[in-house]
Amino acid sequence: MTLLETGADALRSAELDPEEGGDALTLGRRIRERRTRMGLTLEQLASAVDRAPSQLSAIENGKREPRLPLLRALAAALDSTVDELLVDEAPSERAALEIAVERAQRGAVFRSLGIQPIRVSKATSDETLQAILGLHQEVERLHRERAATPEEARRANTELRRDMRVAGNYFPELERAAAQLLDSVGYVGGPVSQQTISTVAEKLGFSLHYVSDMPHSTRSVIDRRNGRIYLSSNLPSRDARAPILRALASLVCGHEEPRNYGDFLRQRVEANYLAGAVLLPEEATVAQLSDAKQQRQISMEDLRDAFAVSYEMAAHRFTNLATERLGLEVHFMKAHESGTLIKAYENDGVRFPSDALGNFEGATVCRNWTARTVFSQPDRFNPWYQYTDMASGGTYWCTSRVEKAKEGLYSVSVGVRFEDVKWFRGRETSHRSQSFCPDDQCCRRASSDLTRKWEAAAWPEAATPTSLLAALPTGTFPGVDSNEVYAFLESHE
Q1: Is the keyword DNA-binding in the record (predicted)?
Q2: Residues 386-410: pLDDT tens digits?
Q3: What are residue 333's DSSP bridge partners?
Q4: 280-445 maps to which CATH number?
C-alpha cells in the first residue's frame, strides 16, 4: 500500500465520502427524518443550532457536509448522537429510493447526457423514481459494456481523484517525509537550492549524472545497483530540482513495481506531491499563505516568487495546503490551448466537464471559463482574473496564467467559490462570464444563422490526434521502452 493510499484510507474513515456509505445524502435524510419526527420546522432547528435555514436546507438535501461542531449541535438539538446520524443506512425505504435517484442524477453518467435533473419531492411517486433509477442503471451498464482497455486507466484515474478530494489533497505522510529530507541536510529556510537537493540525493546514497542520451520515453532513470540517478543534460538548471526529487520519491516512498495502472498513477501523484512538499516546505509555505490570507492578498505569483518554483508547482502546492491548513475549498485546472483539460482537482463543488466514467482529463473546457478566456488576453505578464456564473449553480472566481510547453500553450488556473474570494488578490476584477455547459448552445453550437449558411457547404478535414485509436501503453511502467532503458544502463555502467 502506498503512502497516498494509507492517508486516503485514514481520511475516508473520518470524512463523508459521496461514493461510500455514510455520505452527505444519507446524513441529510437522517437529519430531516428526525426533525420531522420531532415536529420541528427547518427554521426552528436552524435557530436551535444558530445557523441560517438555507444552510440547513443544503445539508438536508445532501449538498453540503456539516463540520463536526455543527454535527454535534444538530445531534443535541435532535436528541440524538453523532454516531446515530452517521449510520450508513437510510431512515426508510422511500428515503433510500430518493437517495439512489439523487446520487444517480449527480453522477458523471447522468451529467454526460445533458438532461436537466428533476427535483425529488414528496409529490414525486415511487414509480417515477424507480423508472428514473432503472433508466440510469441501464445507461450506466451500456457504458460499462463499451469500456475497453483505455477505460481501465480512466477508471483508475477517477478513483484516484476521488481519494484526493476526500483527503482535501493533503497527505500528512508525504509532508512528514519531505520535512525529514530537509531536516537531514540542515535546511533553515528560503528557496530550496539545487545544491540542497543534490545533498539530499547523496544522503540517500545516490549520485546525479546528467547525460545527453536519455531514453526518449523517460524523464529519469535510477540505477539502484550502482547508486546513480540519470537525468537529461538538456534540463534548465533551475528546473532540475523537481525531476531529481521525483526520481528520489520512488526511494523515499518505498515504491515497488506497479501492479496495475492504478498503482502507476498513484506513484506518479506521490512523486509530484513529494517534489512540491520539499520545494515549498509546509510550515514556511503555510506561514506565507496565512499572512497573505490575513491581508486578503493570497496570490499564486507571490508563492511562486517566494520559493523560486514554476507557477504550476506553486498552484499545485496551494491546493495541497488550502483546505487542511487554511480552511479553503478550491479547484485547480490545467488546460491546453485547444480547450482540452489536462489536469484537474476540486473539492469546492465546481463541476468540471467529464466523460461518462467521471474522468476529467481529455474533456473539453467551456469557452467561457477562465481557463479558456485567458488565451485571448493580450497581456501575458499579469494574471487574468474572472468571475464565472455556472449553470450548475453558484459563481466561481478564478486566477489564471498562460505558460508554454513543447506541446503548445496551456493555462494554469486556481479558483474558489464566490464567498471565499475575499481572501484573494484580484477579487475586485470586473471581468465576468456565464457558462451553460454542458448545454451545447453555450459555446459548442454555432448560431442558427451561421449553421444555415455553412452546414451544407463546410467539409473540414479533421486533424485526428495520433493517440485517438492508440492502445493504452503497456509494460510495468506504461509507455517506457524497457529494451532502450536496459541498453542505456548497460552503456553507462
Answers
A1: yes
A2: 999 998 778 999 999 999 887 789 9
A3: 344, 413
A4: 3.30.450
